Amino acid sequence: MTIRPWYREPWPWLLMAAPVAAVVMGVVMVVLASRSNDGLVADDYYKRGLAINQTLDRADQARTLGLAATATFNASRTRVRLNVPAAADAGLTLRFVHPTRAGLDQAVKVDRIGPGLYEGTMVSPALGRWHLNLEDDAGKWRLTGVWVAAEDAARLEPGH
């Protein structure tokens, strides 16, 4: 009977395959975890919780003023036009907030082009669902809405 060296036998390789695969997958998971952004976890969760009352007050103020808006987008999604009939001549900012990826969020400063009409230039957002926040520069009121990037328009209302 001839004795073969251990590395020519199939059993040691089969027994080593599972631990080696676990180590390789562990390294892959560590690399993926270190390179990706976890937008769901906020470092300042306590401060954000305290700010909820201010947000509710701004929605109540918008409701008291009778504010509502319609946002329309051009075909390439690089321009936004806001129709805010009851808004004063305040400076406005429209924020695009992605539900899960904070790195995609953007704020668009919109300029007044006529009575109750505002327009601004934006970076074309990724497809999907977006939360829209329209607020005046003084921070007195805020309108919110949801927009699917495939649609041409979105409605913004207080406390939506």
CATH overall fold name of the largest domain: Immunoglobulin-like
DSSP strand count? 8
Order of helices and strands: HHEEEEEEEE
The CATH class of the largest domain? Mainly Beta
What average pLDDT do the residues reach?
Answer: 86
What's the arrangement of strands in the largest beta sheet? 7-6-3-4-5-2-1-8
Structural class: alpha+beta
Q: What does this 3D model show about the protein?
A:
- The mean pLDDT is 86.
- The protein has helices at residues 10-35, 45-65, and strands at residues 69-73, 79-83, 92-97, 106-114, 117-121, 129-136, 142-148, 153-156.
- Strand 6 and strand 7 form a beta hairpin.
- The chain has an 8-stranded antiparallel β-sheet.
- By secondary structure, it is of the alpha+beta class.
- 29% of the residues lie in helices and 31% in strands.
- The chain has 2 domains: 6-35; 61-156, Immunoglobulins (Immunoglobulin-like, Sandwich), CATH 2.60.40.10.
- The N and C termini lie far apart (82 Å).
What labels describe this entry?
2 domains, alpha+beta, eight-stranded antiparallel sheet, elongated
Short description:
With 160 residues, the protein is α+β, with helices and mostly antiparallel strands.
Question: Which SSEs are present, and which pair or pack?
Answer:
Layout: H1 10-35, H2 45-65, E1 69-73, E2 79-83, E3 92-97, E4 106-114, E5 117-121, E6 129-136, E7 142-148, E8 153-156
